UniProtKB/TrEMBL annotation:
Keyword Cell membrane found: no
UniProt organism field: Leptolyngbya foveolarum
Protein name: Zinc metalloprotease
Cofactor: Zn(2+)
Enzyme nomenclature, EC number: 3.4.24.-
Compartments where located: Membrane
Keyword Transmembrane: yes
GO cellular component: membrane
Principal EC category: hydrolase
GO molecular function, a single term: metal ion binding
One family name in Pfam for this protein: Peptidase_M50
Transmembrane regions listed in the UniProt entry: 92-112, 277-299, 325-343
PDZ domain mapped to chain residues: 112-186
Length: 356
């Protein structure tokens, strides 16, 4: 289920990106004849008054098609509402709209995250966001949202490392009862739980995830929007910094470049720990998608914007044959890189590693 949830998130991000292009064109009354999610053979399609909407077999992207170069199009070549006949600014808006849509979507995800889950704040003790079903903690009556304020009569106060202190007490007590004092809303509860040795890690565990912060409800809409903006800004800086490090130190950072297979695997791991992690995962991947697409590389939105910039400077576009050659080369290289990364990440999947 977590894998399907992550795939659903990626599909949504692709849809948002292509919807940005589509809406920017439609709002300017530019002709659009195709809106597709995925590539390759068509699995489902619907023909609207002007646009064909399709879902295709290879879910590694999508595209918005224009009738400018469609030989079957009945629109006259000199129609002012063809994309190629519009001013540079109009075309730049359409091309950049996918990136803008992904960035706006990322911000809205943070708004939704904090609005639903609250704002994380330091807590006196150790917050328990999730209890594993049928684990020692679950059987002892510990619930999601409890705060451990003492363990074996040792107070767990506000401060860095308090979660490690609790972990140490649990690890040191295999098959021995540990007395925990819990804060559950406005009540204090005492429970006894017996850690069991994990067959995978070999350490005593009780089946809980830990955090030194706990969610606080949002006070008002202004706080919600400002906190989401701060988080959006921080994550955008992190992604941009990672992109810069990749280009300035490619030999060491190239191993961190992942295919959709790797993204799904990492997202599934996060969401299996706590489904709430899908919120920041969706926002960060959306920012990544925007950053990658704005790069001035052939076959990406940034590459097309680079062509428009050259056209604006020269006063006329580059020869169409040159543009097509550059774009086809870029597509070929990106597809090759994508196939390589997919094969590499597939062979490194944990499920396949365990078969060796």
């Amino acid at each position: 289920m977590t894998v399907l949830a992550v795939i659903g998130v990626l599909a949504l991000l692709i849809f948002v990106h292509e919807l940005g292009h589509f809406m920017a064109a439609r709002l300017q009354k530019i002709h659009v004849n195709r809106f597709s999610i995925g590539f390759g053979p068509i699995l489902w399609k619907f023909q609207g008054p002007e646009t064909e909407y399709a879902l295709r077999a290879i879910p590694l992207g999508g595209f918005v098609g224009f009738p400018d170069d469609d030989p079957e199009s009945e629109i006259p070549p000199n129609d002012p509402d063809l994309l190629r006949n519009r001013p540079v600014l109009d075309r730049a808006i359409v091309i950049s709209a996918g990136v803008i849509a992904n960035m706006v979507f990322a911000y809205l995800v943070f708004v939704l995250q904090f609005g639903i889950l609250g704002v994380p704040e330091p807590v006196a003790g150790v917050y328990i966001p999730q209890v594993v079903a049928q684990s020692p903690a679950d059987l002892a009556g510990i619930q999601n949202g409890d705060v451990v304020i003492a363990a074996n009569a040792q107070r767990l106060d506000l401060g860095e490392g308090v979660d490690k202190k609790l972990i140490g007490i649990i690890h040191d007590s295999p098959n021995q009862s540990v007395n925990l004092t819990l804060q559950r809303k406005d009540k204090e509860l005492d429970v006894a739980v017996t850690p069991q040795v994990s067959p995978t890690s070999g350490e005593a565990v009780i089946g809980i995830s830990l955090s030194t912060v706990a969610p606080r409800p949002i006070r008002n809409p202004i706080e919600l929007l400002s906190i989401a903006a701060v988080q959006f800004q921080e994550q955008t800086k992190l992604v941009a910094g990672g992109m810069l490090a990749l280009f300035t130190n490619f030999s060491e950072m190239s191993g961190q470049v992942g295919s959709p297979v790797k993204i799904v695997e990492q997202g599934a791991k996060l969401s299996s720990e706590n489904i709430r992690f899908l919120f920041p995962f969706a926002a960060i991947i959306s920012i990544n998608l925007a950053m990658i697409n704005i790069l001035p590389l052939p076959a990406l939105d940034g590459g097309q914007l680079a062509f428009l910039l050259i056209e604006a400077i020269r006063g006329k576009p580059l020869p169409m044959r040159l543009q097509e050659s550059v774009m086809q080369t870029g597509i070929f290289l990106l597809l090759g890189l994508g196939i390589f990364l997919i094969i590499r990440d597939t062979t490194q999947l944990e499920v396949l590693q365990n078969l060796r």
